[in-house]
Amino acid sequence: MKLRKLTALAATTALCAPMAMAEDMANEMTLVSWGGAYQASQVKAYVEPYLALHPEVTVIWDESSAEATAKMRAMSEAGNITWDLVDVVASDSMRLCDEGLAMEINHDEDLAAAPDGTPASEDFGDLIVSDCFVPQIVYSTTFGYRTDMVGDTPPTSVCAIFDLEAYPGKRALQKRPIDNMEWALFCDGVAKDEIYDVLGTDEGVARALAKLDTIKDSVVWWTAGAETPQLLADGEVVMGSTFNGRLFSAIAEQNQPIGMLWDMQSFDLDGWVVPAGLPEARKARVMDFLKFATDTQRLADQAKFISYGPARASSAPLVGKHADLGIDMAPHMPTDPANATNVHIYDYEWWADNRDDLDAKFQAWLAQ
User: Kind and range of the H or E element at 366?
Assistant: First the structure.
């Protein structure tokens, strides 16, 4: 997959130094994220430490990241930008950047260098897939299943989602075409390296939807990452897709009877964009926070609370044990070799170019 490329601090005082005089900064920020265990990890890893340094600041959370593109379009059209920093997936950052709705970032000037002086652009590397994108984590969308509802043969293949005979019961799938279309084609016999070629045709779209038709009546559609773990915990679904960190939380922290199915996990990136057109005082505040929240130590700290890999190369060696459980986090990362034997590499650029069209077709199919 071809990606777009962008051609622990040196001292405590550097950490605390503001980008502008305090009186030139707004003292309120609206941060947009996904809720649940992931948002909680953000709060613990860098929001609470930042507020400890800046007690004059108030943070307001909005859990609308799943609708970020549509809402930022509407705000721009209305001329009323109410968000200050928005957590989005990589492909949405590309769309928002291409449409001029997100501000371009000078990664080396706006963000902290690595502790050894490596510029931010090199530390993040190819994960900077858009000029407007500041990567935070590498995560995957994968499947969890109820260990007490799958009999003596727990699923080992993603295609179990389509096997209603072996695994009867409801499934949970995200209410969007991304991942569902790829899994459908893969389980209909399309080779992994041909999925996007096939999906780029009308016949391929029809083929993917026809495969999803075979389980449509057994699907609970979700829009928030916390939904599938709750559905599994309540025994309302036998298996379902969600983000690997949400499943880690349910399994390791809540001791739910849930197993992980890593087969064809879909690798993705998540990170920040700054809405274009912010007033200067709000922009100064959010850029000060962004520099702090995406430094090497802060991204490593986030991995203490959720099993997502930090996006900075310099953060990886600092990932250790879970902050509360004391367990080694590395085996729970989607990038661990034992979990990555059959990975689906999600194509950010393809979806950035085709998302609006596929969304329309998928929603029309859902309504049938």
Answer: helix 348-367
